[in-house]
Amino acid sequence: MAKKPNSFRPRGMPTAAEREREYDRQRNAQRPWRKWYFSRRWKNERLNFLSEPENQFCRRCQAAGLLNPGTMRPDGSLQRDPRRMHLVVHHTVRHHGDPSLFWDRSLWEPICPDHHDSEAQAEERAFVAEMARRGGG
Ligand SMILES: [Zn+2]
């Protein structure tokens, strides 16, 4: 009889959904502040911030000469995905779970989802590199 493989997981690749869930679980364990994004305080402060007159356009698009209230892509074409027709509050300084940085509005900027994606990807790469440097997983 064949010996069972000496691994935690049963043989066979986990499904994409399982991998996604596991990734999220690890992420949430490593970044407990993620839950702040689901808090009533964040929802209120975020809405408040985005309703201010100076926060009506994506800062990055604006710097490139485009007034984008969240309805456009950075190239000026119309945003086709209705779920992405809004502005996102971006932290300009990585807060690393420091509440005084997280809640400091002077460190927030409104950006469009496309610009937020590129920021998030850059931060993700920095995070992964940092974890590797620390020797963590
Ligand atoms: Zn933008």
Notes on the protein architecture:
It comes from Metarhizobium album. Residues 1-28 are annotated as: Disordered. This is HNH endonuclease. It is built from five helices and two strands. The model has no long low-confidence stretch (mean pLDDT 88). It is globular and about 65 Å long. It has 137 residues and is mainly alpha-helical. It has a two-stranded antiparallel sheet with strand order 1-2. It has one domain. Bound molecules: zinc ion (ZN).
Summarize, please.
With 137 residues, the protein is mostly helical. It has five helices and two strands. It comes from Metarhizobium album.
Structural class: mainly alpha
Bound molecules: zinc ion
Poorly predicted runs:
none
Measured distance between first and last alpha carbons: 35 Å
Protein name: HNH endonuclease
Region (Disordered): 1-28
Biased composition (Basic and acidic residues): 17-27
Organism: Metarhizobium album
